[in-house]
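Lecture 7, part B: from sequences to assemblies.

Below are the input chains for today's worked example.
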Amino acid sequence: MQRRKVRIFFEKVIETVLGTSSALTSLAVILITVFLFSEGISLFGERPIEKNFELALNKNNPVNHLTSLQIKNIFDTKITNWKEVGGLNQQIKLFTINDIGQYFSDDEVGAKFENLPKCINDLVTRDTAIIAYLPAKYVSKDFTGKKLDIDKITVGSFLGGKEWFPTAEPVAQIGILPLIMGTLWVCFGAILLALPLGLATSIYMAEIANQRIRNIIKPIIELLAGIPSVVYGFFGLVIIVPLLQRTFDLPVGETGLAGSIILAIMVLPTIITIAEDAIRTTPNAMREASLALGATQWQTIRRVVLPHSILGITAAVVLGIGRAFGETMAVLMVTGNAAVMPGSILEPMRTITATIAAELGETSQGGLHYKSLFALGCVLFIITLITNMSVEWATRRRKLA
Amino acid sequence: MKKLISIVVVVALGFTFMSATIKIKGSDTLLPLAQKWAEYFMKLNSGSSVTVTGGGSGVGIAALIDGTTDIATASRKIKMDERLKLQEAGRAYKEVAVAQDALSVVVNPLNGVSKLTREQLEAIFTGKYTNWNQVGGADMKIVAYSRESSSGTFEFFKEKVLNKKNFASTCLMMPATGAIIQSVSQTKGAIGYVGMAYVNKTVKALSVSFDQGKNFVAPSMQTAVAKTYPIIRPLYFYYLTTVEAKVKPFVNFALSADGQKIVSAVGYVPLAK
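Predicted structure of the full complex, as structure tokens:
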């Protein structure tokens, strides 16, 4: 009697431990998601200009509004005349606070910068062609220039923008379309390469190979999964990149295809192991029945084994895609990371993960760049979520059919 | 015996507390150099203690403003807004150039071009020129390699060579200097920029001209020290005048002949005497 009570108590304890573990896991996932989205979403509605800075024009300048791309081109001197943005035919004059020395002596500014607001006001009032980039607190209260409105970041400009210059001054360019396209190109290239190869290998290992060959191949494939991704990246940079360059006679070998090939090698073990396990779950009775009816081995595989294990194979593919989307280091090293809209797989590309990894370390916490990287993380999260859900939906339909 | 040990311990403890730790924080470029200096300095002055941390020039100067570091190291000059912040905090500071860093522009050894002007470099990296025949080379597409935007080298190159204009979005962004050397050595039309100490035989360093093509200077230790090579930046120490007595011995050591010998050993350019 006593013993039974102890046993029941123990079982209760174990139940609680198991329950708490799963609760903790779910909690961690929820916390990460909430954190990611709360940091990411706060990006929208921000002005893409440094906090407490303003852009000012002379008040007689007819230009009232500039897009952030126009501002960048003005400061890059790609636009040099006000005429090009709807103003007068006048050479644009750039001014930042560090140029103050060219216009005023230290004495005029004052030892404690006490005359700085007045100097700036004079300058902006005097020069009709000026565009000035200033800290807001040095814009005097009776400022006679015109403060420029700057477009706030919206979901549309974030997802649809084609310029990624998050550190550009004075106005950051936060458009992630090239990064999304880069990620999709590289991943689908990888799956296209890895799927046939992985599926063929798993069928061979599960159905055709004898035990001895299997004992050799299996550990090799598992070893493939154990190689650190930096090593893959280095291999890609030194071997695959020059190879592609020579084969396709490209000006540059760091391309989306190099990333796809490396990713394909990296997702192979995932696809092969899971697909093989799935194929093995086909009951032997079904195989034997098929063979007994006179079907050949290939017919059995195609008509009996594969349809039976299709769910597991789909799961393998999804996990492979998930791995490909999330992989960072190897891709960072071989795709060249140019943030341009890719025209073909043989051009340099920049993926979302590579961008986050390369840039997050140097951003100031809570700043615009930091938030835009978190928003990028949200986009990545949503992409993987959609992939997973669409596959779940597809398999469920198949089950019902 | 026990008494003796305890006396030794107390005295040792006393010494450590008496000689306060010098805290150094800032530029990642200066990090290896500052660490070497600290190592030698502590060897020379037993009982002294110097801690060195990185984080970036901006981080170092922010710490100086907050008063959490004694010396801020910076691979660029202090910015106007940082000066304004120090001014608001009522802190007076001193600036000392302690070493220099030179960047080499490198191309593939098979490239016929061996010299470029600043204007040409700007046009190449901002995407205006796309073919080597525009700068007197063979008919070959230009492939420009840059460091990631998070690196100080990127900022320096942008400021000094591109006149603060943005890099073209078609530039390939590499995560490390080693990757740039590797890529330039295997890509015929490549051009990139790296710290002078990293240049090896697999790439070709270009002579550059910052006076519209009148004088071209090849990067070398001599031209860098003589300041005839233009793509060079001073590396700075910033400290508050209130802690001058405490940090002065270390600053003097860095500027001494021995200190400057360490500079060339680490791969940077010593100050001209």
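Note for the exam: The longest strand of chain B covers residues 93-107. Keep this in mind when comparing with the next example.
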